[in-house]
Each structure stands twice: as structure tokens, then as C-alpha cells.
Amino acid sequence: MSEIRYKLHPISAFLNFIKGLKELIFPFIIIFGVNLFRGGGETVAERGVQDLIPVFIGAAVLVFMLVSGLIKWRRFVYWFEEDELRIEYGLFVKKKRYIPFERIQSLNYTEGIFHRPFGLVKVKVETAGTGKIGQAEVELTAISREDADRIEKKMEHAKHHSREPMLEAEEAIEEEVRGLPSKTVKTVYRMSLKELIILATTSGGIGVVISAVAVFLSQFADLIPYDAIYQEVVLFLRFGYLIVALLIFLILLVAWIISIVLAIFANYQFTITTDEDHIFISRGLLEKKKVSVPFKRIQGIQISQNPLREWFGYATVTVESAGGTFGDKDEKIRLFPLAKKTTILPILKELFPDMEWEPVMRRAPKRSLHFFYRLDFFWMFPVAGLISYFFYPYGLFSLIIFPIVILFAVWQHRTVGYALADRQLTMEFRTVSKHAFFMMKKRIQAIEVTQSYFQRRKDLASIQATIKSGMLGATARIEHMEKEDASKVLAWYEPSDNKTADLQK
Amino acid sequence: MNQQPKNQISKKGLTVWRVYGMIETAIIVLIAGGAAAITYFFDGPWWLYAIYAAIPLGFAYLLIYLFPKIRWKRWRYEVREQEIELQHGLFIVKRTLVPMVRVQHVDTEQGPILRKYDLAEISISTAATTHTIPALVTAEADELRNRISVLARVAEDDV
């Protein structure tokens, strides 16, 4: 055991404490807030000692958290041995975890506000992970930059070392010549301020903020003296709806501005860099995040455009990658949160030279058009009928849903399509937003062709391809295509069919 | 390419589906019986009884006779050296193609009813999807499971 054992930076004791506190904050507020307010105007002396019990308990919990944070830090050690990252930790039960470097998918860095002044990073070690959800990976709460670099170096070293025997002789020599540290890191994209602002203002984060406000308010519902407010409200309503509407608008506006600020904080200085086998994405103002994605793990690329962004030529690109963190919000890695399609395409070409980014799509046949809207009649007729009947003159306006739905269907019909290349399948379809899936053949897990009774009569079929994404699958589905096309896709995908084709050549 | 996969599932599978259909029908009969009791209790009109009788009969026809028959006729599978092809579906016919190199593991499973008829179902899992062949003779299922696991072993690891 000659290996040096490393500790985390002492600040992680504090971070553990903060983290524990965060989890307890809502129960705390509810218990204490309600209790304190319940007493009304009385002072502590009047209420006596037993009313202070919750305060004592709270203080005890706080002390316990502080101490446990300290012990957790004291107990946590990691070291390198036999090409493994070994970790020992645990508050009451001592746990050991050994991770072979081979199995490590990526190291993700986060720099929080507390990390910055000390030049520290939080490192998440990601494995392909079949463990429990949220437990799959190891987290080093706070280590210095140099330590993080050392882990990375060790990992790289181990990987190259063990891979060498498997390589063919020539390649091994080439590897030697190039040497290990020659990995060139290249910046391929940096988000401009304009793009950042457009992203922030058009992102759908508003809903999140509103619901957060609603949740926040509901937490305090017990404390609000409704009776008193009710009187006020009645008075208030006499001022007319205008003020109410104005107030709602103001709240929405504030929510929107908050969401803009949050989006700017999250995506500030969004940068993509690459070396030979990883893509690195770093972003963030207060909390800097760096995510690395090995090229090997990338299963497919998705380009999405909602109608508004499509109109202005903007798009979002997400990477479907296998394994990785699960239960995290960032499960799908956004390669481009938002950028002009014209800027995206050349960069994608550079990153993935094997793939075709603007293939010629084969669209759905004309006769499949009515398949896209005729099921909608089942709900449109009764809904429009009832509304028109019960709210007679104005209800007739509900008939407007017919042209809208049909136009929408036409649009979906126009968008749906696929393209087959030698080793790549591209599918394009629209829900409201337009999505394009780019998949390598060797990454597709299964292809399904479905045909309903009505489709069979018209010789149509739907095609569905599944790739692995995160711990689960991501599915691209194009509806109501020509039956011939479905057969073509199946034949293209069938391994033994290709064999025979190759033999014939 | 356009011909159907070769193998059909065991004829006994049809029987098992009929048994399932009977169980489902029995539940519906119970519900209808309960409804009839309530109607009797509250002096409901006579035609309600007719409906209570008609519904289970209709379901019995569909669940015990028609649906199992169509499903059984439609269910086909074929395990070739390099891929597994499945076809099934009642109203919507679904055809699935799974390359052998994508298969991660194979399971066989047997519930009490299936065991009584000496059948087993076999599930084929890839990294992202699971596909089930519902009723095979146990020996055949075991044989198939072993065959798939041998064939799948050549898989390379690009996930």
C-alpha cells in the first residue's frame, strides 16, 4: 500500500453541511415558520419552555449536520491502485468503491461559488452505470485543479496502457510516435452574446418559474390570513378587472425576466471544445460546469426547432449518449442550446465527418395526408358541436379548429421523411416542433415497422427506430410512409441481407 | 424481405390465451352480476338486464374466440444467425428487427398458467428495448435462449 492517499479540500466539509441543509430547508421552514407564527404576539417568556422544544431539536439537527459534514470529509479518501480509482468513505458504515479506469466514461467538473475563491472543482466520475439511480457515480465534492488534472492524467495513462496490446502493431507504433500528451484541444464554438440573449428570451423556462412561485406560495398558504385579505380583495376588485389583469401581467413579466436571468447565468460563455476522443461543453456564470462526452458513447444527434425558432432559422442540438448520469436534469446533453442552423451545420460536419448532415429526404406519399388529421375528427366534431350548440352565436367560433388542425396536419405531412445513407439513417418529423434524428446504423438498437388495418389498405406503414440514450432509449418515429419505404429501411437494417449484398459485389 | 418470419408460436399458446380470455370474461360477468343485483335492488327497468347479459356475451366472443385467434395467426418469429425478426399485433401489425449484435441478454419466464401447459415466454433485451415472444414450448424456449445467447456473444461493444 505504497500509494498516496488523497483527501478532499477541507471546504468540502462545509459543502456537505450546506448540501444537508438544502435538503432540510423546506421541512424546517414549515415546522418552525408555522410554530413561530402560531404563538401570535406572545413572547418566549410567556410561552414557557416546552414551546422551545422545536427550537432545541432544530439546533441539535444543525449541530449534527455540521459534525457529520466534518466527519464525512475526514473519512473520505481516494487513491490510485492497479489502474483503479479507489475510494473509501462513509459516516457510520465504511464503504469502499473501486472503479477501474477502463470503466470511467467521463469526468464532469462543476465550479460553484464556494469553489471559485480556492481554485477548486467538484468532480463527478461517470461510469456506464447499472447501479442504483443517482448512486451510479462518484462525486468528489471539492478538490484542487491540479488534483483533478492528476486523475485525468492517470486515467488517460491507464487507458492507453491497457489498450496497447489490443492494437495492431502498426497502430501501436503510431501511438508511440504521437505520444500521450499530444492531445490537442480545439475550440470549435463559442456562443455569442446575441445568441445567448435570444436563447434566454425564447426559452420555455417561464413555466418552471411560475410553478416555482406557485409552489413557494403554497408552502406559505397556512400563514396567510385569508379573511383579512378577502376583505381587501373585494375592495380591490371594485377597482375593476384592469388592475387585476395588469397585476397578472406584471407577475408574468417578472417571472419572465427571472427566467431570462437564470438562462443567462446557466449558459454564460457556452463553449464547445474537442480533443481526439471527447467533446467538452463548458458553461455557466456563477456555477461553471464542464461536461465531457466521449465520441465513442454518442449514439445519435437530434436537431430540434420549434416553429418560432424555425422561422428565424435557429435550432437546438442535443446529443444522445449512452450511460451517464441518470435522474439529472441535464440528462440529454445540449450540444448547441441555440444557434443559427447555418452556424451549426459546418461545426457538426467538423465534429462528425462521417455523418451526412443535409441528406435528401424521402417524404411521405400524397395519399397518406388525410391519415394525419382524420383521427382528430373524433374529438373535433363533438367538441365543436357542443360548444356551438350551448353558446350559440359565439360558440360558432369554435369551428375554427377544423382549418387549424387540418393545416397543422398538412404541415406535419410535409415534414415527415427519412433518408438512408450507407451507414446512417436520418428521420425527420414534427409534433409541434420539428425534429431531425441522425443515427448511425451500428447505433440503432431495433427497428419496428407498424401497420394498422387502414394503413394496410392504403399500402402505408409507420417506421420507428430506437437508439440508446442515457439509461433508456430514445425513439424516432415517422408515420404513414410508403410501405415500400418501410421495407427498404428494414432491408437496409437487416445484417444478413447486407452480407448477401456484399457477397454479390 | 417481404415474406413473413417463418416460425409460429406453439398451438398451445392459443389455448392459454383462451384461458386468459375466460378469466377476463369471468371478471366482466362478476361486474355485470353486481350491476344486475343493484338494478334488482332499485327496481330498474327490464331492458337493463338484457344489456347486462349481452355485454359479457359480446366480450366472451371477442376475448375467448376472436382476438386469440387473430393474434395467434399473426404472431410469427424467426431467429437467424444475425438477426431476430418478430411480427405481431391485433389491429396494428408490428414488425421488429433486432440485430443479434445488439442483444444484451435473454430471459425465459413461466407463470403458473404457462407452466401448466408446459410453455414459457422468452424476452430479448437490447440496451434500450425489450422484446417478448409470448408462448413457446419450454424445451424450445430453453433451446432458443441458449442459441440466442451463443449467437449474441459475438457482439462488439459499441453499446
TrEMBL record, chain A:
The keyword Secreted does not apply. Keywords: Membrane, Transmembrane, Transmembrane helix. It comes from the Bacteria. Residues 73-153, 269-325, 414-493 form the YdbS-like PH domain. The chain crosses the membrane at residues 21-40, 52-71, 196-221, 241-265, 371-391, 397-421. This is Putative membrane protein. It comes from Planomicrobium soli. The lineage of its organism: Bacteria, Bacillati, Bacillota, Bacilli, Bacillales.
From TrEMBL, chain B:
The chain crosses the membrane at residues 21-41, 47-67. Residues 72-148 form the YdbS-like PH domain. It holds the Pfam family bPH_2. The keyword Metal-binding does not apply. Keywords: Membrane, Transmembrane, Transmembrane helix. This is YdbS-like PH domain-containing protein. It comes from Planomicrobium soli. The lineage of its organism: Bacteria, Bacillati, Bacillota, Bacilli, Bacillales.
